[in-house]
Amino acid sequence: MILCIEDEVQLRRDIVDELVEAGYDVLEASNGRQALDKLARVCPDLVLCDISMPGLNGYGVLKALQEKGPDYTEIPFVFLSALADPRHIVDGKRLGADDYLVKPIDYDLLLATIETRLRQIGRIRSARLLRPATPNFTKLAEAYGLTPAEIRIIQALSKGGKLTQIAADLGVSRSTVAFHMRNIFEKTGTGRQTELVALVLQR
Question: How many domains are contained in the chain?
């Protein structure tokens, strides 16, 4: 099930029609508060969320979702926005968003993004079922030349931790964690957190 949060009525209907036609079950919300009410009752497979909404905006929805616990922190979260400013994209990524689509929505890109995100989270969950034991982080460090700090961050990520909370737990700044993440991505040949976690769970 996909939760679509969009305050523009016609756009929300268009998105829902496209998703239903593609075979997805869709739950609608017209604003952030309504979305949180629905999230209290259901755990969707993916969230599409507008950023600029009256009351609780998209950033607030994402933060609230991350605070709901492990069943919710891994849900792929895709922002929808008319704002093409790279700073907004960076802000969303830092908060933990998985993707960012700019309005007017390209529906082929929307569907491709959803398919990719659902496939990635499916691989992570399958890897956990197949390999319930704790990943061998020592071998991971040796294989990719990872530092102790980088391994601690990867361990936290593999347990569903978000970067802001990881920074607080490790007693370092958010920018320090981001610096380590760039090094980790470069060393492991991954480009996103979901790819990195999938790699770790396959070890």
Answer: 2
